[in-house]
């Protein structure tokens, strides 16, 4: 199971990095979202994988590690803020510049120049 | 009066001068003169004490730990230099008033000159090495400003920059040297350093420190091979050249050598480096001076040559040589300053400094000519003038040198040769300019200079004559105290006299005069010979290496910084890959020693869906809507994973964030292109795939290595204290609102700031609203489907109830402010989707900005509340109450904090979505081409 979990994290990282390396804003935002999934899962797993041992105090002796959970919880919310900010930035960039390339200066000029 | 007033007064003078732009030239000059005159008076007031052999100190304790103090000392050497700096400074200020034309700013020049004067005084009066260094750098900077005074001239700017770089680099070397010296002695106070000569010379760091300090001195004093900046600094106005490049700044290096002479000199390495550098500079300067057609160029190289002479004297192993060096400092300052001023007059009155055009000036300006000729004769070393005396001493001392072993006879011979060259260029100065036929093609009709412009030269020439004829009367005492300050012993008995009888030095002087005149007579042949030699200019070497360094840096920068953000990311990721994977290869085994769990059906299906969703997102990333749906599968599976692995709080949070995120991204996609065109080349895609796979492999491996190893956690503390200390059984929530409450406060603040940033980004956004979807289909006419509208309205109170429930139970069971806030936000967003923002806007009057602020404020005040009870910030309090109908209930102050979190999350989420959603409702859909017309 640990192996499967790690494979999932690895796949998410790969997909996230690939999307981040695209030239348009929307895939990059998706890539960032994907990467934050991966990072959250990774951080969460530093408390090890436990089943049916939620850190709700009861008669149990063993609990899942609550500290990474608390950290990841805030990370999820902050990750949302970041995704929101970057997508709005993308909208703003498109509205102001007329396209959604991330490399506004070089690539756009070349592309426009090539078309005309 | 205290010594530290001297630099303070000149600083005040500098500031005052910069405000005199509205005054007349005479008033400006008078104000500028005041400060140095007062400073001079203070120095003279202290002179008797110094003459009697005292060293005066003035000390303000400052930064004890680093050994920097405001500390001044005033001994014979300081007195001598202060008199030169202030005396010649006054003359230069007076002279500049007549030299500068109406269109040049006199206050600017005076402000810089006085600043420079402050720096020089600071150097010669410092008793702390770091303070000395500070003033040293200040001379570099102020001389930069002075050289580039005519900043519209490229020559001036280049010359200033070159001087700054060379002397600045030397200054850095000097700093290093002084730091080492201070380290050896254990103090930066110069009086303590001067008392530790033996300690310093025995230190293994002595050589390093010596070489670094000498580098500083040689660059400042334009010694070979750093001499080339000085001629280019001649682009400065002539008063500046007279002041900086003859009398004062270039002497700062000499001063430095003299100041540290007691502790650094006396070893073989000192004598070899200093004397050979001095000798090379002496000869080179004298030789090149002969071939300069520009008057200032001739004087510049002559200055270099004389600085070499003084350096050589400091490098000769006799005490009398040091006395001669001090003597020559005085003499050179007087005759060279007057020569520069005379050159300024010639330039001023004829419009040129080219000796090939300037001829026969005697007819036009007999007074100036007389003065200049006397000074030039002093430079050549003609008897009855001061230059003769010090040169005679110099010749005498070279005879005693044992520096080159059996070849030591070379030194007096080379000294005589340099003397002859000096006579030759002095003769050229006199004969070419004032006689030698008629002027050729001058820009102006030459005439005599204004009366007062000649006054400073007259004073200096008078000093040359007085010292030359009555040395014992005029200069003996000053020379004595200055030399004893350098030697730190009683000055050796010396006798300056015009006539010592027929001896070897006299013969050398005679040979120099005869030889020099012969060289001058043969100058035409020499000029031809020189012209046939390939020119090797220090400046071009300097500029070429300077340019190539800049070019190299530029290329390196461009290699990395080509404007492509992907490229930066790739470099970043590649660096990460390298450093993160390196330790993996060092590990024996990836898998750890924990017991592994088997894969069950549930996990297998979940993982398969997650992987499929992630891969599908990538595969369909050009069709943005599809990839968005695919990524929502991933998010869902992540929350399922949290549920599975005992993290109910995370699962709830992830689920609600997922809903909000996907709604937001869909809304955003409305304003963005629906498809990504295919642009990347195959090779680029391959590269990206390789890098992405590499990252995945590395992170996955690290993750695997991590989770298969036993856990050593600090969490036991939280589990043990959650109930007793925090009053809650949901440990995650207790950590959030109690143990790590300060973190959470930071997080909600960040969330609020992000929301405000988004609000600002959307302000005045020139959006275009597409009239069709990506496939060209019109939007549906029915904007708000009635079914959704009805159901959502029914759901709202239920959702809010759930949210309240989640909030209240959060402290003990999964839930809490974050999750409740997101659930509330989702419920309200559903209303927006179902009814449109206008509909919601009229019913829900909520200023989201104030909501965010209110939330953060509640959380902060709750935290501050604990201060009232004299507990640390954010200490929580709880107790149990018996509430009617409800029963025994726990109330905790942490709940108020959590309420702040809740309100902030609702406000921020709603602000983000509602602000964007507002854009769609604001006006009718426009056609894409119309509103994008600006493009």
UniProtKB/TrEMBL annotation, chain A:
Superkingdom to which the source organism belongs: Bacteria
Topology relative to the membrane: Multi-pass membrane protein
Chief location category: membrane
Compartmental location: Cell membrane
GO cellular-component term (any): plasma membrane
Gene3D superfamilies reported in the protein's UniProt record: 1.10.287.3510
Membrane-spanning intervals of the chain: 6-21, 28-51, 71-91
The entry's keywords: Cell membrane, Membrane, Transmembrane, Transmembrane helix, Ubiquinone
InterPro entries per the UniProt record, alphabetical: CPA3_antiporter_subunitC, NUOK/Mnh_C1-like
Keyword Cell membrane belongs to the record: yes
Keyword Magnesium: no
Similarity annotation: Belongs to the CPA3 antiporters (TC 2.A.63) subunit C family.
Protein name: NADH-ubiquinone oxidoreductase subunit 4L
Organism: Catenovulum maritimum
TrEMBL record, chain B:
Domain called NADH-Ubiquinone oxidoreductase (complex I) chain 5 N-terminal: residue spans: 67-105
MrpA C-terminal/MbhD domain segment(s): 609-674
Recorded topology in the membrane: Multi-pass membrane protein
A single BP term in Gene Ontology: monoatomic ion transport
Lineage: superkingdom: Bacteria
The entry's keywords: Antiport, Cell membrane, Ion transport, Membrane, Transmembrane, Transmembrane helix, Transport
Segments traversing the membrane: 28-47, 79-100, 109-126, 132-150, 162-185, 205-230, 269-291, 298-316, 322-346, 367-389, 409-431, 452-470, 502-522, 565-585, 601-620, 627-645, 651-673, 685-707, 744-763, 784-808, 814-834, 855-874, 894-916
Localization: Cell membrane; Membrane
Gene Ontology MF, one: antiporter activity
A cellular component term, taken from the record's GO annotations: plasma membrane
Listed InterPro entries: CPA3_Na-H_Antiporter_A (IPR050616), MnhB (IPR007182), MrpA_C/MbhD (IPR025383), MrpA_C/MbhE (IPR046806), ND/Mrp_TM (IPR001750), Proton_antipo_N (IPR001516)
Domain Na+/H+ antiporter MnhB subunit-related protein: 788-911
Keyword Ion transport: yes
Chain ranges of the NADH:quinone oxidoreductase/Mrp antiporter transmembrane domain: 126-402
Cross-referenced PANTHER family: NA(+)/H(+) ANTIPORTER SUBUNIT, NA(+)_H(+) ANTIPORTER SUBUNIT A
Full protein name: Monovalent cation/H+ antiporter subunit A
């Amino acid at each position: 199971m640990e192996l499967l979990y790690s494979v999932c994290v690895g796949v998410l990282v790969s997909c996230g990095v690939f999307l981040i390396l695209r030239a348009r804003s929307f895939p990059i935002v998706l890539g960032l979202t994907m990467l934050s999934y991966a990072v959250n899962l990774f951080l969460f797993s530093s408390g090890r994988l436990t089943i049916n041992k939620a850190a709700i105090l009861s008669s149990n002796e063993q609990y899942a590690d609550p500290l990474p959970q608390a950290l990841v919880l805030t990370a999820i919310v902050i990750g949302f803020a970041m995704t929101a900010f970057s997508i709005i930035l993308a909208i703003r960039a498109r509205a102001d510049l007329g396209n959604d390339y991330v490399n506004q200066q070089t690539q756009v000029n070349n592309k426009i120049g090539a078309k005309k | 009066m205290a010594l530290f007033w001297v630099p303070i007064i000149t600083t005040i003078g500098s500031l005052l001068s910069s405000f005199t732009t509205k005054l007349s030239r005479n008033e400006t000059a008078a104000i500028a003169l005041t400060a140095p005159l007062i400073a001079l008076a203070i120095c003279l007031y202290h002179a008797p004490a110094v003459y009697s052999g005292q060293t005066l100190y003035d000390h303000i304790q400052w930064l004890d730990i680093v050994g920097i103090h405001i500390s001044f000392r005033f001994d014979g050497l300081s007195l001598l230099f202060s008199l030169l700096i202030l005396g010649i400074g006054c003359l230069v200020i007076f002279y500049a008033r007549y030299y500068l034309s109406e269109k040049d700013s006199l206050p600017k020049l005076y402000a810089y000159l006085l600043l420079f004067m402050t720096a020089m005084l600071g150097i010669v009066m410092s008793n702390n090495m770091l303070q000395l260094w500070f003033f040293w750098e200040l001379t570099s900077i102020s001389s930069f400003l002075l050289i580039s005074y005519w900043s519209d001239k490229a020559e001036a700017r280049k010359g200033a920059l070159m001087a700054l770089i060379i002397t600045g680099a030397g200054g850095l070397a000097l700093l290093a040297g002084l730091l080492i010296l201070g380290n050896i002695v254990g103090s930066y106070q110069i009086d303590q350093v001067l008392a530790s000569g033996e300690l310093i010379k025995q230190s293994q760091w002595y050589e390093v420190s010596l070489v670094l300090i000498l580098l500083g001195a040689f660059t400042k004093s334009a010694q070979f091979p750093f001499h080339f900046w000085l001629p280019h600094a001649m682009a400065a106005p002539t008063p500046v050249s007279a002041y900086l490049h003859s009398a004062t700044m270039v002497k700062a290096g000499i001063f430095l050598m003299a100041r540290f002479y007691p502790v650094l000199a006396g070893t073989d390495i000192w004598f070899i480096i200093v004397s050979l550098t001095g000798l090379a500079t002496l000869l080179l300067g004298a030789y090149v001076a002969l071939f300069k057609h520009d008057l200032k160029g001739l004087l510049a190289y002559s200055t270099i040559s004389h600085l070499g002479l003084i350096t050589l004297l400091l490098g000769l192993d006799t005490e009398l040589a040091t006395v001669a060096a001090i003597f020559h400092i005085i003499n050179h300052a007087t005759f060279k300053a007057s020569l520069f001023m005379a050159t300024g007059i010639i330039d001023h009155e004829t419009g040129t400094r080219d000796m090939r055009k300037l001829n026969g000036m005697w007819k036009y300006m007999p007074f100036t000519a007389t003065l200049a000729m006397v000074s030039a004769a002093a430079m050549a070393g003609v008897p009855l003038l001061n230059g003769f005396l010090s040169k005679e001493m110099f010749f005498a001392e070279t005879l005693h040198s044992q520096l080159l072993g059996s070849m030591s006879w070379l030194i007096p011979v080379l000294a005589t040769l340099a003397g002859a060259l000096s006579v030759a260029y002095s003769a050229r100065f006199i004969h070419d300019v004032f006689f030698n036929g008629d002027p050729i093609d001058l820009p102006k009709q030459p005439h005599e200079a204004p009366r007062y412009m000649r006054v400073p030269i007259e004073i200096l020439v008078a000093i040359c004559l007085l010292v030359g004829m009555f040395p014992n009367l005029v200069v003996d005492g000053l020379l004595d105290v200055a030399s004893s300050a350098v030697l730190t012993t009683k000055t050796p008995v010396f006798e300056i006299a015009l006539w010592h009888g027929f001896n070897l030095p006299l013969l050398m002087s005679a040979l120099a005069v005869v030889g020099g005149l012969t060289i001058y007579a043969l100058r035409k042949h020499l000029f031809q010979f020189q012209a046939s030699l390939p020119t090797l200019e220090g400046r071009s070497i300097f500029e070429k290496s300077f340019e190539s360094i800049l070019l190299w840096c530029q290329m390196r920068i461009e290699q990395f910084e080509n404007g492509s953000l992907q490229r930066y990311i790739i470099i970043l990721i590649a660096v990460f890959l390298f450093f993160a994977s390196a330790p993996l290869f060092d590990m024996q085994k990836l898998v750890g020693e924990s017991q592994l769990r088997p894969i069950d059906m549930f996990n297998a299906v979940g993982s398969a869906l997650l992987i499929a969703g992630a891969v599908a997102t990538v595969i369909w990333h050009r069709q943005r809507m599809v990839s968005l749906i695919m990524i929502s599968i991933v998010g869902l599976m992540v929350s399922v994973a949290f549920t599975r692995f005992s993290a109910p709080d995370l699962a709830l949070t992830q689920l609600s964030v997922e809903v909000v995120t996907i709604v937001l991204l869909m809304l955003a996609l409305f304003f963005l292109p629906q498809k990504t065109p295919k642009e990347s080349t195959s090779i680029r895609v391959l590269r990206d795939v390789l890098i992405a796979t590499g990252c995945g492999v590395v992170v996955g491996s690290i993750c695997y290595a991590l989770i298969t190893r036993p856990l050593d956690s600090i969490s036991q503390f939280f589990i043990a204290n959650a109930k007793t200390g925090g009053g809650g059984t949901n440990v995650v929530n207790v950590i959030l609102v109690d143990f790590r409450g300060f973190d959470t406060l930071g997080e909600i603040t960040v969330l609020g700031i992000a929301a405000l940033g988004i609000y600002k980004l959307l302000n005045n956004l020139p959006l275009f609203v597409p009239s069709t979807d990506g496939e060209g289909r019109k939007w549906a006419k029915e904007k708000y489907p009635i079914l959704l509208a009805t159901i959502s309205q029914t759901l709202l109170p239920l959702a809010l109830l759930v949210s309240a429930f989640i909030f209240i139970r959060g402290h003990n069971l999964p839930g809490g402010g974050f999750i409740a806030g997101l659930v509330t936000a989702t419920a309200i967003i559903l209303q927006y989707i179902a009814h449109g923002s206008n509909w919601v806007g009229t019913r829900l009057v909520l200023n989201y900005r104030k909501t965010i602020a209110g939330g953060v404020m509640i959380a902060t005040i709750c935290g501050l509340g604990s201060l009232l009870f004299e507990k640390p910030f954010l200490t929580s309090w709880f107790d149990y109450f018996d509430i009617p109908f409800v029963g025994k209930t726990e109330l905790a102050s942490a709940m108020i904090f959590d309420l702040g979190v809740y309100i902030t999350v609702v406000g921020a989420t709603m602000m983000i979505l509602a602000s964007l959603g507002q854009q769609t409702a604001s006006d009718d859909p426009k056609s894409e081409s119309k509103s994008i017309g600006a493009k």
